[in-house]
Amino acid sequence: xxxxxxxxxxxxxxxxxxxxxxxxxxxxxxxxxxxxxxxxxxxxxxxxxxxxxxxxxxxxxxxxxxxxxxxxxxxxxxxxxxxxxxxxxxxxxxxxxxxxxxxxxxxxxxxxxxxxxxxxxxxxxxxxxxxxxxxxxxxxxxxxxxxxxxxxxxxxxxxxxxxxxxxxxxxxxxxxxxxxxxxxxxxxxxxxxxxxxxxxxxxxxxxxxxxxxxxxxxxxxxxxxxxxxxxxxxxxxxxxxxxxxxxxxxxxxxxxxxxxxxxxxxxxx
Length: 269
Known about the structure:
The protein is an alpha/beta fold. It has helices at 11-29, 49-57, 70-79, 81-85, 121-131, 155-170, 181-187, 207-222, 225-230, 236-249, and strands at 39-43, 62-67, 89-93, 106-112, 132-142, 149-151, 191-201, 256-267. Keywords: Methyltransferase, Transferase.
């Protein structure tokens, strides 16, 4: 995944992932019940941001979290130090396409913001299914970047977003993977497939939430700046213009924006 991860692996990216997990926790975990899950595989744990959120909500879980990035895993080890010491979390460096794990051992397997970054999501899902117990659950929470909107239209932000998606697709990843989750689950032989849209919507009625989401969106777009500049898609001047635009939008509560993520839940027969 390292060559297709548009955001990079810097310390600032690690901090962004932690902030993102906090900002979107109510969206990502709203309506999700994992009370019956004792053993969970988290594929693509990154810096442990979502692992921490999982443990806050379901402290009974035993989580085996994997990632390919040494730097992200080192950060996860630090952020999850207490949980690791208690034996609640195990971290393993591994490729999700070929898990170094025995079959049929987990109650559930989960990804959050992972499959958009990989060229072979079907292979990863097949591996997740392999290590699940019969009747085990699959939970995929992923992006559909085609749903990103500002009202009224904002050409500067929307053009940056288009370049962001183009670079990601050129790398072999899929920023619209949310549209494919049901088909992937069906092809993997899963049952009880349920797809739920997860709206991330600003509102002038909740100004602090709007401000937090606006800054999250700014940081998300700017996290791809180095990749976009290397690809010749944007310039330093474009980056500064984007920063200025987001600063101006903080003082314009009439501007709304929205985004729909997608959650798929299913079971292994």
